[in-house]
Design goal:
Blueprint lengths: L2 H30 L5 H31 L3 H5 L2
Helix pairs in contact: 1-2
């Protein structure tokens, strides 16, 4: 995978992860008002943990790109 592909993946991947985390939190908040389903709660907890790990990985990849390819964000924002 070349640097441009990785950068594009990061640019589009981060908003997708944010949307998934937002949806999960919204569903969890709505569901908490009623009787919580233990299976759903476990799945939501697992999905939230997974989304958090993905966000951390994206942050780390962005830091690596910032060090290795200064200005990569500006080049791919066109």
């Amino acid at each position: 995978m070349n640097n441009d592909t990785l950068a594009i993946l990061l640019i589009f991947g981060l908003p997708m992860v944010a949307l998934v985390v937002g949806a999960i939190k919204s569903i969890a908040k709505d569901k908490s008002a009623s009787q919580p389903d233990p299976m759903l709660q476990a799945a939501l907890t697992q999905a939230e943990a997974h989304a958090t790990r993905l966000e951390e990985r994206i942050d780390q990849l962005e830091r690596i790109l910032d060090e290795d390819i200064p200005g990569w964000r500006a080049r791919n924002a066109r």
